[in-house]
Amino acid sequence: MVIDEDVLRHRWSEGQPCHGLWSLLPGVVTAEVLAGTGPDFVVVDLQHGAVTEAELPGIAAAVRAAGSVPLVRTRSPLFADVGRPLDLGAGGVIVPNVRDADHAREVVAATRYAPAGGRSIGRLSGGADQPLVVAMVETRTALDDLDAILAVEGLDGIYVGPGDLSLSLGLSGAERADDLRTVLSSIVARAVSAGVPVGVHAYDGDAAARHAAEGATIVTVAVDSVSLREVMTHHLDVARGRKETRDA
């Protein structure tokens, strides 16, 4: 089934988990391979990934051709960085470093044409008139203002960045993992209670399934660079006799 922005928005809001992949690696071929596995959405990471803006039209087209929604984590929450991917084919944005509810309203306005917002007309390739907009919760200030963020009109969801949030809260390190999990579960519960779609960044299917079981509907299943490293390491270990094969 081909999924577009409206379908994804509806499923999120109805509490149906939608499963996506996160991409740090550049190139249209990467996007084709990822989208070809059947995710509901593919997130292209401009903040920490190797993809350039010039690649976005081709990447977005490849993801759409496979029946998935191309989303982009923007480089920053700045007005130009939010709008640029939308002009280059993205069906929505996941915006990092959102400070509080007022900041979230600015982010939403950057994705909407006047009179609803300040987005400039000039879309070059694909995209959507009403793109999905998701604010990342990854700072203490955002967590402190979470209830107000959840009430921001036009926001399609929130997405928790556990790594940066753990640093902001002083909960980094294995010895604080349980405390961090408690915080993450609380955020998910508060979003679900408010009727706002929520996701928590995950690197594997087990973690993704745990978040979904708690109520997350924006479900990141895997990150391409991490999965590639794990798979290649496994096969090298098997070939070198460091690990038994499954058939052994």
From TrEMBL:
InterPro entries reported for this sequence: Aldolase/citrate-lyase_domain (IPR005000), HpcH-HpaI_aldolase (IPR050251), Pyrv/PenolPyrv_kinase-like_dom (IPR015813), Pyrv_kinase-like_dom_sf (IPR040442)
Pfam families in alphabetical order: HpcH_HpaI
Assigned keywords, A-Z: Lyase, Metal-binding
Presence of the UniProt keyword Metal-binding in the record: yes
Origin: domain of life: Bacteria
Family designation: Belongs to the HpcH/HpaI aldolase family.
Protein name: HpcH/HpaI aldolase/citrate lyase family protein
Record organism: Nocardioides zeicaulis
UniProt lineage: Bacteria, Bacillati, Actinomycetota, Actinomycetes, Propionibacteriales
